[in-house]
Specification:
12% of the residues lie in helices and 34% in strands. It is mainly beta. Strands 1, 2, 5, 9, 12, 13, 14, 15 and 20 form a nine-stranded antiparallel β-sheet that branches.
């Protein structure tokens, strides 16, 4: 209710009151309308096309003891004031504390989208071929929703965790901002279905450095208990995760925008990274033959890479600073209480803001792209790789299936 001060010289008639009310309404309504728009625009799906995405957020709203997953249908009207929202600049923000509920078989929190080629058609199961993509060499590729695919993103990392009990462990102080994940099968077929990750795109910044590093990893497609199952890191700007040196001007600052494109075309994953302050970096790696991004045969990898796996894109903030205290490679024992306000105050969280995120069909890379590929490793070649040409001498095709000659594959 508002008050109108009466004039001492002019009678306050009903007509006068209505006139004042009208002027007040004209002045106030735009602000009310603007506030309504701002509220609507804080829902990410109102600014970004999320018709093929669901999201996992580090909460348990229904108290079922499981991390919350928001479906494609529900994400259209979903936001979380702390972990998934649109900021004042129109960016889609993802945040995840070090300590919170996690997905099954993971000790890392996330606020992360999962691509769903089925859209909102829940009659198609999540792990069905009709909801995932594969590579062209898969003998059953025609059963999939898509062969290959493309993911484009522009983002800035706004914060990474700053405290870890084991700071020298590689995942400390890092966040994954994009992935390709392979589906995990209950019954493995010909060494596929382990649920590994042919791609993770990382940003890592040590607390004492002004800039961080961007790099990507390829995980050998091996069983979980296989000793050679590990992530092979490739540098983009700055260092890879095992190098504690300050990347200086070669690195990327917090809140500095950069872009990536993941284009799986045929059997090959083409990667392109762009930044206003850095040279564009392009990579290519075949996902169907065990040859690494430098053209070398990795004798420890599955000889056919991810040929028969089902794959999907992920994007957002996948916090790599696990609070688990264990001898394992992934467990940096980062600090965290589980109280968001306290953890944010202490810097025990990650936050990433996307200004662009799109998905679509793959495309043949340009000749300019191919001419500017990274093809040589920056350091001395490892002892456990051979020239990739040797692989082609050992492969043939029989009945549309890949056959490896003179080698055993027991996984």
């Amino acid at each position: 209710m508002f008050r109108v001060k009466r004039s001492t010289t002019v009678p306050f008639t009903q007509k006068g009151f209505l006139a004042i009310s009208a002027r007040y309404a004209v002045a106030v309504l735009p602000f009310i309308f603007a506030a309504t728009l701002v509220t609507a625009e804080t829902i990410p799906a109102n600014k970004f096309d999320l018709n093929e995405w669901k999201i996992t957020v580090p909460t348990d709203k229904d108290n079922d003891g499981k991390v919350d997953e928001i479906s494609v249908k529900d994400i259209q009207s979903f936001k979380h004031k702390d972990f998934f929202y649109v900021d004042d600049e129109g960016n889609m923000v993802f945040a995840a504390p070090n300590k919170a509920l996690t997905t099954q078989n993971s000790s890392n929190t996330r606020s992360e989208l999962r691509h769903m080629l089925r859209g909102s058609n829940t009659r198609i199961k999540t792990h069905s071929p009709n909801n995932n993509f594969t590579v062209a060499s898969n003998p059953l590729s025609d059963r999939f929703a898509q062969v290959g695919g493309k993911l484009n993103a522009t983002l800035k990392v706004q914060h990474v965790a700053t405290r870890a009990k084991y700071p020298d462990k590689a995942p400390a102080f890092s966040v994954v901002v994009g992935q390709i994940h392979a589906s995990k099968w209950k019954k493995k077929v010909k060494g596929f279905g382990w649920g590994n990750e042919p791609l993770k795109i990382y940003y890592k910044k040590w607390p004492r450095h002004e800039t961080g590093s961007v790099f990507w990893t390829y995980e050998r497609n091996l069983p979980k208990n296989e000793k050679n199952r590990t992530d092979i890191a490739y540098p983009v700007w700055g260092n890879i995760w095992t190098n504690p040196e300050d990347p200086g001007s070669e690195g990327i600052k917090l809140n500095e925008s950069f872009s990536y494109e993941v284009n799986v075309h045929g059997d090959v994953m083409y990667l392109s990274f762009k930044s206003d302050r850095h040279k564009t970096v392009n990579y290519a790696i075949n996902l169907a033959n065990g040859v690494n991004a430098y053209g070398e045969l990795d004798k420890h990898d599955h000889p056919y890479g991810y040929t028969q796996d089902w794959n999907y894109f992920k994007a957002g903030a996948y916090n790599q600073c696990s609070t688990k205290d264990d001898d394992g490679f992934w467990y940096a024992a980062c600090m965290g209480t589980g109280n968001w306000a306290e953890d944010k105050k202490n810097g025990d969280y990650v936050q990433v803001a996307f200004s662009n995120l799109t998905v679509g069909e793959s495309s043949e890379p340009t000749e300019i792209f191919k001419a500017n590929l990274v093809t040589q490793r920056p350091t001395t070649k490892s002892d456990n790789v051979d020239n990739g040409t040797e692989l082609r001498k050992e492969i043939k095709y029989e009945n549309d299936e890949v056959v490896l000659l003179n080698k055993e594959w027991k996984h």
